[in-house]
Write a structure and sequence with these properties.
133 residues, six-stranded antiparallel beta barrel, 3 helices, globular, alpha+beta
Length: 133
C-alpha cells in the first residue's frame, strides 16, 4: 500500500461503512484504530446493531474516510473490505487507542482492506492512488 494512503489512514479515526440489506444499503459511522500489519480497520459495535447483523450476512463492506469540505483541500479514501471479528492482537491495538472502550460491552470487529482508492487534491495528482490486495 502506498505510503500516502497509510499515513492518511493513520491520521484519521472515523469511517463510514455501508452494508447490503437485500436490495438496499445501510450505513453506519464508527471510530477505528488501524492494524497496519494486516491492513485492517478495527472498530467496536454492539452485536445486535443492524450494521453488524447485516455485515455477518454480507461480509463484503464498502467504506469511506473523509473530512475536508473544500475541494482544493479534499483528501479521502474509498475502500472495500472483508468484515471479520477482531483478533486478540487487534483488540489490543484498539484498546491502546481508545482505552475507555474497555468499559463498554461492545464487541470488536475488523475490516480487512482488499481495495482502496485515495484522493488527495493537495497533491495536484492527475490520477488517484489505488491499492489492490
Amino acid at each position: 500500500m502506498d505510503k500516502k494512503i497509510l499515513e492518511y489512514i493513520k491520521s484519521m479515526q472515523l469511517l463510514s461503512l455501508a452494508v447490503r440489506e437485500d436490495e438496499e444499503v445501510y450505513i453506519a459511522n464508527v471510530f477505528y484504530a488501524f492494524d497496519e500489519s494486516n491492513l485492517a480497520l478495527i472498530f467496536s459495535s454492539y452485536e445486535e446493531s443492524k450494521h453488524i447483523q447485516l455485515a455477518f450476512l454480507n461480509p463484503k463492506i464498502a467504506l469511506s474516510i473523509a473530512k475536508e469540505d473544500k475541494i482544493a483541500l479534499l483528501k479521502g479514501l474509498q475502500a472495500k473490505a472483508l468484515f471479520k471479528e477482531a483478533s486478540k492482537e487487534q483488540e489490543q491495538i484498539y484498546y491502546k487507542k481508545f482505552p475507555f472502550a474497555r468499559l463498554s460491552h461492545a464487541k470488536l470487529y475488523a475490516l480487512e482492506l482488499f481495495w482502496a482508492k485515495f484522493t488527495d487534491n493537495t497533491l495536484m495528482l492527475d490520477s488517484k492512488l489505488e491499492f489492490k490486495r
